[in-house]
Design brief:
Layout: E1 8-9, E2 24-33, E3 40-44, E4 55-59, E5 64-71, H1 73-81, E6 83-87, E7 98-107, E8 116-121, E9 130-132, E10 159-161
Antiparallel strand pairs: 1-6, 2-5, 2-7, 3-6, 4-5, 7-8, 9-10
Length: 174
């Protein structure tokens, strides 16, 4: 997963092997390791119509996506193939560069499947620093200086920020 990307499906080739006479009632997908609350999320995009009665609920506190609805294993496999990871952080690899996911399926007999584990590597991208000039100061504005006069402040309230780094190593004015 690369920073600022769309949700990335991490189970695109998932197949379910189960008793064909039993329907699936629930699938639980959780960010099990290195979950960054408030930034990481799991998104469900059915990408197909109809959704066959499967609905999704995201729990940001636990990092868990619940897919609920009684239908076939094939339809659940398709639904799980459309679950994607997204991070809203500008520095998503700060906690760990790898997220671990667990997936458990529940059949209509109330029996849980084995826990399937999958992993996703996180790649941050460098963001350029941002220079904010004070409000009302137009870009390209001209300041007046008189020879041998006092120094003139060009932007006394300028702010520099960088989402990836809290210290600026170099700046120049030309």
């Amino acid at each position: 997963y690369t920073e600022n990307s769309r949700p990335l499906p991490f189970l695109p080739h998932l197949a379910l092997f189960h008793d064909a006479h039993l329907l699936i009632t629930k699938a639980i997908v959780q960010i099990a390791a290195a979950y960054d609350p408030g930034w990481d999320a799991l998104a469900y995009d059915p990408g197909w119509e109809p959704n066959h009665g499967i609905s999704a609920t995201w729990n940001a506190t636990s990092g868990t996506l619940n897919l609920v609805g009684t239908t076939s294993g094939d339809r659940y496999a398709t639904a799980l193939q459309n679950v994607g990871f997204i991070s809203y952080s500008e520095f998503p690899a700060h906690a760990s560069s790898r997220r671990e996911f667990t997936t458990v399926i529940v059949d209509s007999g109330g029996v849980n499947s084995n826990t399937f584990r999958s992993f996703l590597e996180i790649c941050g991208t460098p963001d350029a620093p941002v220079l904010q000039i004070e409000p009302g100061f137009a870009s390209g504005a001209i300041a007046s200086y008189t020879e041998l006069g006092s120094p003139v402040l060009l932007a006394p309230n300028a702010l520099v920020s960088d989402a990836d780094n809290t210290s600026v190593a170099f700046a120049s004015v030309t």
